[in-house]
Amino acid sequence: MAIGGDLSFNRLLVAYRSGVFPWYSEGGVAFWFALNPRFVLRPQEIYISKTMRQLFRRKAFKVTLNHDFLAVIQHCALIERNGQGGSWITEDFVKAYYDLHLKGWAHSVEVWQDGKLAGGLYGVALGTVFSGESMFSTISNASKFGFIAFAQWLATRNFTLIDCQSETAHLSSLGAYNIPRTEFMEHIINNVSSIPLFSSGEAEKLLVFS
């Protein structure tokens, strides 16, 4: 919907409060998107398959929140994805979202196995809406495990929506679905907040699942 501007802290917050997000930049110029329909998931409605339930019973992974934001976003930038020639997560994106993280707005979910980072995701929390940006796995089912654990954590804190942005089979299998942009924007307007999830400074480190 727009081209230009930078990835400054204030511009990013205004964008998310307007249902807009940057998808990539070229030559330092940002490209902004407001998809219609919008792909979303309600945390309370997360679908957990039989295979994933078995992994949770086995406690196959440990899941943390905000323990290593930089590692997560850098892994997301480096991971190879089918059909994509390169990553949209440039160094400018890393710096911009790390700034959001330090101010309490952007958050990372880390998935660990045997003390090593096996997967993760990051995004922006705005009121009771979490806007997911990217995820990665180095071990099968690691990112899905982390996403499910985090969705359950969000549900206990009365989050009402996870913005998945564009449709993927991976997130569809977890219960995500499309809604009109008008419905999405109504939800955003009614659930925005001027207060970050955590206070300024390094975002609070929490254990989500162990």
Overview of the molecule:
With 210 residues, the chain is an alpha+beta fold. 33% of the residues lie in helices and 29% in strands. The protein has 7 helices and 11 strands. The chain has helices at residues 9-17, 50-58, 69-78, 91-102, 142-156, 169-172, 181-191; strands spanning 2-3, 21-26, 29-33, 38-41, 62-65, 106-113, 116-126, 129-137, 161-165, 177-179, 206-209. The protein has an 8-stranded mixed beta sheet, with helices on both faces. Strands 1-3-2 form a 3-stranded antiparallel beta sheet, covered by helices on one side. It is globular and about 45 Å long. The mean pLDDT is 92.
Report a brief summary of the structure:
The chain contains 7 helices and 11 strands.
What is the strand and helix layout of this fold?
Blueprint: E1 2-3, H1 9-17, E2 21-26, E3 29-33, E4 38-41, H2 50-58, E5 62-65, H3 69-78, H4 91-102, E6 106-113, E7 116-126, E8 129-137, H5 142-156, E9 161-165, H6 169-172, E10 177-179, H7 181-191, E11 206-209
